[in-house]
């Protein structure tokens, strides 16, 4: 049995969130109803959901050795995530996102900087000693593209499931897609391609043959229905949303938690939708993740 059920590769951040009722305007001081600090980043939050679901999970990210280090590692560990593969780099600043969340419609405006995480290098031998490929699944958000490509190629050779969260068009995305078994993109990605979501799904499926879906926010999720040979749609039930920060990241974690246990693509998408919807009820990408008992009962 592998050491991990899933290793998540990519960006881990600290999110500083401000909930506001007004409009964002230049050169103005805008009062915030609430300010919160939470963990964030696609790979980090995906791993947090998997850990809370009870899966043996590790995250491979680059952070700094600074005032945020303890918060990043402590929160992940509290959620059941192994941080042995997190690279705390001296002289690097931990990636921080500033998130303005609108009380009016729960939308968020994010200012972020990866602090050059995608350009960082680490010897493959060190990662292998840490268990980066001692896993049933390798999941990448594409932010550490060079590292993800090397690990995904090795994972495919070893028969490890490769999952790709393609949030946007990034250099190297087509190569990583070619190594993926499961590909879930955002509607932003298809918009950048200049394609309607159903057409993008059909093209991706025809080219790569993987299981593929595209999330469309509060509308729902499009997916390729293998049984019917056509694009299907799962409508998202409405929630009284407070904050949509991290919804996609929570979606990916919940999807994998269900999919890795049952290999039920449609059922995993439905579970991911429900979990991500509940997340919107709280301020913060991880603060709104449902409780351990709820997740495990639903799984």
Features:
alpha/beta, 34% helix, nine-stranded mixed sheet, 10 helices, 25% strand, globular, four-stranded mixed sheet, 299 residues
Report the average pLDDT across residues: 96
How many DSSP helices? 10
Strand coverage percent: 25-35%
Distance from N terminus to C terminus (CA atoms, Å) equals 21 Å
The arrangement of helices and strands along the chain is EEEHEEHEEEEHEHEHEHHEEEHHH
Low-confidence runs of at least 5 consecutive residues: none
List how many beta strands DSSP finds. Answer: 15
Gyration radius over CA = 18 Å
Largest sheet: 9 strands, mixed
Percent helix range: 25-40%
User: Order of strands across the widest beta sheet?
Assistant: 6-4-1-10-11-12-13-14-15
Category by helix and strand content: alpha/beta
Q: Based on CA inertia axes, which overall geometry fits? A: globular
């Amino acid at each position: 049995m592998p050491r991990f059920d899933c290793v998540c590769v990519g960006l881990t951040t600290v999110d500083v969130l401000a909930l506001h009722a007004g409009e964002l305007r230049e050169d103005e001081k805008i009062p915030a109803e609430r300010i919160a600090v939470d963990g964030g980043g696609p790979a980090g939050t995906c791993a947090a959901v998997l850990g809370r679901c009870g899966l043996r999970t590790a995250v491979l990210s680059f952070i700094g050795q600074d005032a945020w280090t303890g918060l990043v590692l402590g929160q992940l560990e509290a959620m059941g995530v192994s941080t042995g593969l997190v690279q705390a780099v001296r002289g690097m600043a931990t990636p921080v996102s500033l998130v303005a969340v609108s009380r009016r419609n729960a939308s968020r405006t994010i200012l972020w900087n990866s602090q050059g995480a995608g350009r960082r290098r680490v010897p493959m031998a060190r990662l292998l000693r840490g268990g980066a490929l001692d896993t049933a699944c390798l999941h990448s958000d594409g932010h550490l593209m060079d590292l993800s490509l090397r690990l995904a190629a090795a994972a495919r050779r070893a028969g490890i499931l490769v999952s790709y969260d393609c949030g946007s068009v990034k250099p190297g995305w087509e190569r990583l897609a070619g190594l993926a078994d499961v590909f879930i993109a955002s509607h932003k990605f298809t918009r950048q391609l200049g394609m309607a979501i159903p057409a993008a799904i059909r093209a991706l499926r025809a080219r790569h043959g993987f299981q593929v879906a595209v999330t469309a926010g509060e509308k729902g999720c499009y997916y390729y229905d293998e049984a019917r040979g056509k694009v299907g749609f799962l409508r998202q039930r409405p929630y009284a949303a407070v904050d949509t920060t991290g919804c996609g990241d929570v979606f990916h974690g919940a999807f994998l938690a269900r999919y890795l246990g049952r290999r039920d693509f449609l059922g995993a998408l439905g579970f991911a939708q429900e979990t991500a919807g509940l997340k919107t009820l709280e301020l913060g990408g991880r603060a709104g993740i449902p409780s351990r008992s709820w997740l495990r009962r639903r799984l």
